[in-house]
Amino acid sequence: MVKKWKVTFPAPTGPETRWAYVYLPDSYYEDPDRRYPVLYMFDGHNLFFDEDASYGKSWGLKSYMDATGTDLIIAAVECNHHPDFGRLMEYAPFDYDDPVAGPITGYGKVTMDWYVKVFKREIDRRYRTLKDRRHTFISGSSMGGLMSLYALTEYNQYFSGAAALSPSLWTHPELIEEMIRNSWLKPNTRLYMDYGSIEMRNHQGMTRLFQRVTSLFLMKRVFLTSRVVPFGDHTEACWEKQIPYFMSTLLYDDED
After folding, report:
1. Mean pLDDT, to the nearest integer, of 114-128?
2. Mind giving me the DSSP string for 89-142?
3. What separation in angstroms does the CA of 97 have from each of 69, 77, 106, 146, 198?
């Protein structure tokens, strides 16, 4: 089941409300004493329903979760659709120059502070969650993928794992590499990161940049699953196909 309600987000473009989405597995209602891990995600409107998705095609995440019976709560928030590049500002950890939008002021810290101090607390209050770091993850694609890397490194006390699909590393590579180098990551941090072989051609030097970022995370002793997706492109249809891979990384059994 997917529940929806309106939230007020401290976005840089104003106090507009947007949809929050929470997926609850079928077992949530069958076992009233059970608690569940939580995966937080960006671009919630693109995850579950085609009718809500920006380009008419969602990740089909509800269908996957229902079919596999994965016992996980997913909590996500719609992005900012403001025409003045609200999404780019909301999902940018740093200031950068976009080739189309021009100078972008990054409000990534404002976004993540809201996720951990407001949204997570609300999810933990409303639902039977496992609140601890070990059972809390974050994921997104494109700029949401970049934000997932930012969350894992700068908010590692909250998130034990992240999935970054097609992360927008090209926006500020030097600062991203510095962020990873300077991070202190707790033991057992895990990361899934991928990039499509077709979209590698979208930005000059992406193969080398992806390799450098991967190497930095390995040096931090992160449990890393890194993939170049064969014939993968920058679309929801492609990211949908990667769900089994990143779910396996995040939920891999780490019992002692």
Report:
1. 96
2. HHT-SS-EEETTTEEE---HHHHHHHIIIIIHHHHHHHS-B--SGGGEEEEEET
3. 43, 25, 10, 16, 24
Rounded-to-integer distance, Cα 38 and Cα 41, Å = 10
Tell me the whole-structure pTM to 2 decimals: 0.94
**Is residue 256 in some structural domain?**
no
Q: Can you give the CATH number for the domain in which 184 is found?
A: 3.40.50.1820
- Residue 219 domain-assigned? yes
Share of the chain above pLDDT 70, in %: 97
253 neighbors 199 (Cβ within 8 angstroms): no
Which residue, chain included where needed, has tokens 């997706």?
A: 229
8 A C-beta contact, residue 236 and residue 140: no
**Across all residues in the chain, what is the average pLDDT?**
92
Specify the number of domains making up the chain.
1
Residues written for the chain: 256
CB 164 within 8 A of CB 192: yes
State CA 160 to chain mean position distance. 13
